[in-house]
Specification:
By secondary structure, the chain is mainly alpha-helical. Helix content is 51%, strand content 5%. The protein has three helices and two strands; from the N terminus they run αβαβα.
Length: 79
């Protein structure tokens, strides 16, 4: 599996810019919330075969990009 976020950060450090994805929102879920949703799903009805877990509060690329940029500036190798 390609880990594209670390690759994106490394490329941005080299180029000096983050790409503009063109999408407005990222509906990513924090892993602990996704895990909790799966557990809840399994406890409610074991006969149900599918669940569509959606983040009702997607993060805008402008916020995500600024956060990645800030973390990249704060990060120093070995710290």
């Amino acid at each position: 599996m390609i880990k594209w976020v670390p690759a994106l950060v490394q490329s941005a450090k080299f180029v000096g810019r983050l790409p503009d994805d063109g999408r407005q929102d990222f509906p990513w879920l924090p892993v602990h919330l996704a895990a909790a949703a799966i557990i809840d799903f399994l406890e409610v009805d074991p006969t149900t075969k599918f669940a569509h877990v959606v983040n009702s509060h997607p993060v805008a690329w402008s916020i995500l990009g600024k956060t990645i940029a800030a973390v990249g500036r704060a990060w120093r190798p070995g710290h």
